[in-house]
Amino acid sequence: MLIKKITKVENMIDTHIHSDTRPYEDFERMALSLDGVITLAHDPLKPYSMDVLRAHFDRLIEGEIERGKKNGLKVFVCLGIHPRMIPPDVNYSMLKEYLKNKHVVGVGEIGLEKSSKEEIEVFERQLLIAQGLNLPAVVHTPRRNKKEVTKTILEIIDSLSLKKDMERRIVIDHCNKETVSMIYDRGMYIGLTVQPGKLTPGEVVEIVKEYEGDRSLLNSDSSSAPSDILAVPRTVLKMKMEEIEEEIIKKVSYINAKVLFNLKV
C-alpha cells in the first residue's frame, strides 16, 4: 500500500475565535499547533449599557492576552460592537479610544444579524471608524438568510463610498459556498469558518481549490457554541491530504492573516 507523505505546514493562525468563552486548558492545546489567534468581541452578556461592553473589551485586552501568554499562545484582539450586542447608549468615542490600544489589530466583529435599522446604523458607523483609524474590519454574517444579509452588507458598503484600500481590508466572515463568489468578485477577504453548521474541512478544500487561497482566511470561530479549537490544523491537514499546493495552504492558514492584520508572528 502506497502511503502519501504529508509534509508539515509550519505556520498557522486562527483568525476568529472568542477566547474568553474557552477554558484555560484550551490555550495550551492551541499553542501546540498555532502561531497565534485573533480573539474578537462578541455578545457575552445582555447589553444593558455601554459599560457592559467596556468590561468585555477590558477582559479581552487585559485578561485574554495574559491567559495566552501563560500558555505560550500569542493572542491578538479585534474590538467592536457585535450586532447582537448593541447597547441603548452606544458611545463611539469610547470605542475609538479602545481601538487605539496597541494590542488591537482590527475592528470586529461587526456586521448584521437581522438587518434592523439599528444594526445597519451601528455597522455603518463602525466601518467609517475603521477607515479613519486605518484598521481592517471583520464582518459577521448570520447563519440564517446568509445570502440575503450578505447582499445587504455589500449594499451598505457601496453606499458609504469607502476608499478602495479600505474595501480591500474588509473580511466578510462565516462565508459559505453560496456567498464566496460575491465576496471574491468584490476584492474583499473571505472568512472560512470551520464549525458545525458552517463549513466542514472538505467544503473548505473545495473553495480553496477553486479560488487558490486568494484573500481567504481560515478560522474556527471557537466560542460557547459547538466548536473545534483545532479546526484550523485539522483543515490544513485535510488540504495536505488533498494535495493542495503548500504555497496555497500557507496563504490561507498564515500569510493572508499576517499581512491583513499586520501581525508580529
Automatic annotation (TrEMBL):
Q: Which Pfam families match?
A: TatD_DNase (PF01026)
This protein's superkingdom? Archaea
Task: List keywords of the entry alphabetically.
Answer: Hydrolase, Metal-binding
- Metal-binding as a keyword of this entry, yes or no, is yes
GO molecular function, one example?
Answer: hydrolase activity, acting on ester bonds
What the record says about family reads:
Belongs to the metallo-dependent hydrolases superfamily.
Q: What name is this protein filed under? A: TatD DNase family protein
* Organism, scientific name: Methanofervidicoccus abyssi
User: What is this organism's lineage?
Assistant: Archaea, Methanobacteriati, Methanobacteriota, Methanomada group, Methanococci
